[in-house]
Specification:
This protein has five helices and twelve strands. The strands form three sheets. The chain has an eight-stranded mixed β-sheet with strand order 5-4-1-6-9-10-11-12, sandwiched between helices. Strands 2-3 form a two-stranded antiparallel sheet. It has a two-stranded antiparallel sheet with strand order 7-8. With about 230 residues, it is α/β, with parallel strands linked by helices. The chain is globular and about 65 Å long. The model has no long low-confidence stretch (mean pLDDT about 90). Bound molecules: cytidine-5'-monophosphate (C5P). The site of cytidine-5'-monophosphate (C5P) has 14 residues, from α3 and β9.
């Protein structure tokens, strides 16, 4: 009510990249800055929610009033997300989780081998964190409301719809990361928001096949977070 429309809501957000060790000094990761997830955490806190931020390694300060849990690997993020989502009203998966990790991180630094021009790394798939949360929601209490993100370089709407359905999400925020100045590492973002009809309380334009959508114009991630 009033200044705090989200008062009483518990919100859990994943943000940033994950880091998958190859050996004691090396890892696989990606260019996620964490800016979008941190902006969402800040917006949710400003709206009065209790916010927990599960963050991979980023160089951002923890937003005021937000409880941050720092993790490195996808498996650590998976464990934290399952635990914290269980009593959350809203779960937002904004992290850029590494799809694969080394099957076994080497105990000692991997050395170059004389005469070998190649090195083969054996990778295994990481769990899909948001899909686990959504499945456990469906087989459990029916909470939380699950919102995913999709960074795409083409066919934005089709891929977003597919992810929404396949991962059993309530809503997905899709952005085109091929557009200059938007997305990864940038301060601005634009998005196409899709949700299953009836998943959101407010009014939106009806679509033909069970999905509703709204396009959000390019704007600072802080403003976009509030709009989402
Ligand atoms: O399949 P893709 O990685 O594009 O899906 C993006 C969405 O799924 C994001 O919400 C992301 O946080 C989530 N995700 C996840 N665990 C993974 C991969 C993606 O939670 N292993």
């Amino acid at each position: 009510a009033g200044d705090a429309p989200a008062a009483g809501l518990i919100v859990t957000i994943t943000a940033g990249p994950t880091r998958e060790p190859l050996d004691p000094v090396r890892y696989l990761s990606n260019h996620s800055s964490g800016k979008m997830g941190y902006a969402l955490a800040e917006a949710a806190a400003a709206l009065g929610a209790t916010v927990r931020l599960i963050s991979g390694p980023v160089s951002l300060p923890c937003p005021a009033g937000v409880e941050r849990l720092e993790v490195e690997t996808a498996l650590e993020m998976h464990e934290a997300a399952r635990r914290l989502a269980a009593d959350s009203d809203l779960f937002i998966g904004c992290a850029a989780v590494a799809d694969y990790r080394a099957e076994q991180a080497a105990e000692h630094k991997i050395k170059k081998v004389e005469g070998e021009e190649g090195l083969t790394l054996r990778l295994v798939k990481n769990p899909d964190i948001i899909a686990t949360v959504a499945t456990e929601r469906d087989t459990g209490t029916g909470r939380p409301f699950v919102v995913g993100f999709a960074a795409e370089t083409r066919d934005l709407e089709a891929y977003a719809r597919d992810k929404l359905t396949r991962k059993r999400l309530d809503m997905i925020v899709a952005n085109d990361v091929s557009r200059p100045g938007l997305g990864f590492g940038a301060d601005d973002n634009a998005a196409l928001v899709l949700w299953r009809r009836g998943a959101r309380q407010d009014e939106a334009s009806p679509e033909s096949d069970g999905f509703d959508q709204e396009a959000l114009a390019p704007q600072p991630k802080s403003r976009l977070a509030m709009a989402v």
